[in-house]
Write a structure and sequence with these properties.
By secondary structure, this protein is of the alpha/beta class. The protein has helices spanning about 35-40, 45-70, 90-105, 115-120, 170-180, 185-195, 220-230, 235-260, 275-290, 300, 305-315, and strands at about 5-10, 15-20, 25-35, 80-85, 110-115, 135-140, 145-155, 155-160, 265-270, 295. The protein has 11 helices and 10 strands. Strand 1 and strand 2 form a beta hairpin. Helix 5 runs parallel beside helix 7 and helix 6 (about 185-195) packs across helix 8. Bound molecules: 5'-O-[(R)-(carboxyoxy)(hydroxy)phosphoryl]adenosine (KG4) and zinc ion. 5'-O-[(R)-(carboxyoxy)(hydroxy)phosphoryl]adenosine binds near residues 144, 187 and 302.
Length: about 325
C-alpha cells in the first residue's frame, strides 16, 4: 500500500505540470502550465527556452498543488517525476526538483518513463467508466511519439509498431505550416479541414494495406507541399490530409489488434487523440473488433502530471522505487 498522497511532476517537453493524487488514484489537485506561447514565434519547441521556463515555473506549481490538496511535503507517500524520454534540460529540472524534495523529506522517489505514464493513464480509477484492464492496445499519437503498444501488465509493454519518420502530430504540424497555419497546427488544420472536401485532392495513404503497424508520414507531407504549390484549395487539402491520416491510423490499428490477441480495449492517447476524424475512424475499428474505444479526456491525453503521479502509484504499489541519484534519460524506450 502507498503510505500517502503522491506528487507527480512533468517537464519532458513544453508543459510544466504538477499534480497530487491520493493513494487510491483520486486527483486531489492538478495544474498544467503550457509554454506554447513562448515557443510559437519559433515555430517549435526551443529546448533551452523550455528548460528555463520549467525552472522558473515548477517551484510555484508544486507549492500550488500541494496547497490546494492540503498536503504538507513531509506527508507525501512518494514523489514521481518524469525522468525520460524527452528534452534533457527539462528532465534535469523536473526530475532534479523531485529528487531534491524526496531526499529532503526522506520520501520514496519514482523515476517515471513518460511513455509508461501515457500507457497507464487509462487505468486511472474513477475517470473512465469502461476502465482498462490488462492487456490492452495503446495507440500513442502525439507530437513526439507515434506507436502501437501492447500493454500487458505493469512494466510489460510490447512495442508493435512505430513511425519510420515523423510522428503523427509532427505530420499535422508540418502540413499545417505548409498551409500557412500557426504552430502547433493540429487543431487549426482540423478546423480548416471542416470547410473542405477531401475527395477533391488525391493524397497518398502511406503503408496502408501493408502488414504490420508501422507508420510513415513524410511522403504524405511532400504530397501536401505539392498540392499547395499547384494552388489547390487549402481547405480541400486540409480535409484530404486529415482523411488520409485517419485512414492510415485506422488501418495500422486494425493490424495492431491482430498482433495483440486478448486485448480488452483499444486505447488512444496523445494530443492527436483530440482529432475528431482520427477518433471517429478508430471508433469504427474498435466497434468492428467488438472492443471499447477508450479515449481519456483530452487534458489527460496531452502531457500532464496526473499520469506521472498515477504511474508513480502503480510502481509504488509494485514496490518499485528509484534511488535519489537516478539520472534522467533523454532516450528511454518502453
Ligand atoms: O501529446 P501532445 O500534447 O504533446 C506531445 O507531443 O507530447 O501532442 C501535441 C500534438 C501536436 O503535434 C498537435 O498539433 C497535435 O498533438 N494535436 C492535434 C490536435 N490537437 C493537438 N492534431 C490533430 N488534430 C487536433 N485536434
Ligand atoms: Zn507525451
Amino acid at each position: 500500500p502507498v503510505p500517502g498522497p503522491v506528487l507527480g511532476i512533468e517537464s519532458s517537453c513544453d508543459e510544466t505540470a504538477a499534480a497530487v493524487l491520493a493513494p487510491d488514484g483520486a486527483i486531489l489537485a492538478e495544474t498544467v502550465f503550457s509554454q506554447t506561447e513562448d515557443h510559437a514565434r519559433f515555430g517549435g519547441v526551443v529546448p533551452e527556452l523550455a528548460a528555463r521556463a520549467h525552472l522558473a515555473r515548477l517551484p510555484d506549481l508544486v507549492a500550488e498543488v500541494l496547497g490546494r490538496a492540503r498536503v504538507a511535503p513531509g506527508d507525501l507517500g512518494g514523489v514521481a517525476a518524469t525522468s525520460g524520454p524527452g528534452l534533457i534540460g527539462g528532465l534535469i529540472v523536473g526530475a532534479g526538483y523531485g529528487k531534491g524534495l524526496a531526499m529532503a523529506h526522506r520520501l520514496p522517489f519514482v523515476a517515471v518513463n513518460h511513455l509508461e505514464a501515457h500507457a497507464l493513464t487509462p487505468r486511472l480509477p474513477g475517470l473512465l467508466p469502461e476502465g482498462a484492464r490488462f492487456p490492452y492496445l495503446l495507440l500513442l499519437l502525439s507530437g513526439g511519439h507515434c506507436q502501437c503498444v501492447a500493454v500487458e501488465g505493469l512494466g510489460r509493454y510490447r512495442r508493435l509498431g512505430t513511425t519510420l519518420d515523423d510522428a503523427v502530430g509532427e505530420a499535422f504540424d508540418k502540413a499545417a505550416k505548409l498551409l500557412g497555419l500557426p504552430w502547433p497546427g493540429g487543431p487549426h488544420l482540423e478546423r480548416l479541414a471542416g470547410e473542405g472536401d477531401p475527395s477533391r485532392v488525391p493524397l497518398p495513404r502511406p503503408l496502408m494495406g501493408r502488414a504490420g503497424c508501422d507508420f510513415s508520414f513524410s511522403g504524405l507531407k511532400t504530397a501536401v507541399a505539392q498540392a499547395v504549390a499547384k494552388g489547390g484549395d487549402r481547405a480541400d487539402i486540409a480535409a484530404a490530409f486529415q482523411a488520409s491520416v485517419a485512414a492510415v491510423v485506422a488501418d495500422r490499428a486494425r493490424n495492431a489488434l491482430l498482433m495483440a490477441p486478448g486485448a480488452t480495449a483499444l486505447v488512444v492517447s496523445g494530443g492527436v487523440a483530440a482529432n475528431t476524424g482520427v477518433r471517429t475512424a478508430l471508433a469504427w475499428v474498435a466497434e468492428t473488433a467488438g472492443l471499447p474505444l477508450v479515449a481519456p479526456p483530452i487534458r489527460l491525453c496531452t502531457d500532464n502530471a496526473v499520469m506521472v503521479a498515477w504511474a508513480g502509484i502503480e510502481r509504488l504499489r509494485g514496490g518499485l522505487t528509484d534511488p535519489w541519484d537516478h539520472a534522467p534519460r533523454p532516450r528511454w524506450p518502453l
